[in-house]
Amino acid sequence: MNKISKSCRAHHISWEHAQALLASSGCTKDTELSQKVRRPVYQLPNGNVLLPLEDDIGVVYESREQLTSIFENTSEPPLEQRRGIEHIDLNDYLIFCHAPIEQVEAAFSQIRQVVDWERDAYGREIEISGQSFAIFQFRGHSWNAIHELNFLPGTLPLGGEDEIKLLSSLLQTKAIEYQISDTGGNIGYKLYEFGELTESLYFSSDSGGTYQFDSKKRQLETKYPAIDVYHFTYTFMEEQDVYVPAFSWKNLKKRKRVTLNFQGYNYDDFERFDCCRTAPKYIG
What we know:
Blueprint: E1 10-14, H1 15-23, E2 28-29, H2 31-37, E3 42-43, E4 49-52, E5 57-61, H3 64-72, E6 84-85, E7 91-97, H4 101-111, E8 114-118, E9 125-127, E10 131-138, E11 144-148, H5 163-171, E12 174-181, E13 186-193, E14 196-204, E15 210-215, H6 229-239, E16 243-244, E17 257-259, E18 270-278
Parallel strand pairs: 6-16
Antiparallel strand pairs: 1-5, 2-3, 3-4, 4-5, 7-11, 7-12, 8-18, 9-17, 10-11, 10-18, 12-13, 13-14, 14-15
């Protein structure tokens, strides 16, 4: 996803070699560098760093400073032009709707009992109570995203009871469910069009790998394990004109008052960033 200069002093290794290094004693994940380059990066005992890539290879750099300088010199397009997935080194669940934010909020209010709305909430302190959700749209983008801000035991999470299908049907447009878990080793999406499920992908690395792909729109000549499911999902989001941010939501989950402010994003990056509180919707 990020481009790497071919002029850097680094060498490529096989995926098997990369896996052996990852399993070796003293190999640790470099969290700070992973966030900077937006991919998992690992510090090796000899001072080298390992960057696993999508195409079943790894790249070993002489030092973390070398890799840092490469990415610092790599220009990133402005937010208005970004599409695809920011990075996959997190746990997240989002719903995207291809409709104006006022229509998305009206449809969401029909499937959840909304108590109140906080308009233009980005950068402000807000109260988290009941079940709280963020609905936002990047400037220069046509999709809106919905994210659940907190978790209440026993309540129906975002997306439960075919909520994405209902949103797509009510709005008469496309809606996408996206999930990613670096700890669980899974990724997936569902595309609904006018309330109909037209394509879905799910992959889990557990038990040797679980792969499911169904589509009413296309057939794939290449299938897992030959297909790179992460790159495939990234490309799907690009094709749909969606940009999936990697916000650090986890700091919001257990607090009653929070300030919505994510590293690398400011108020002007959003066309709108609204929040709503709903009455808890309990399972059963």
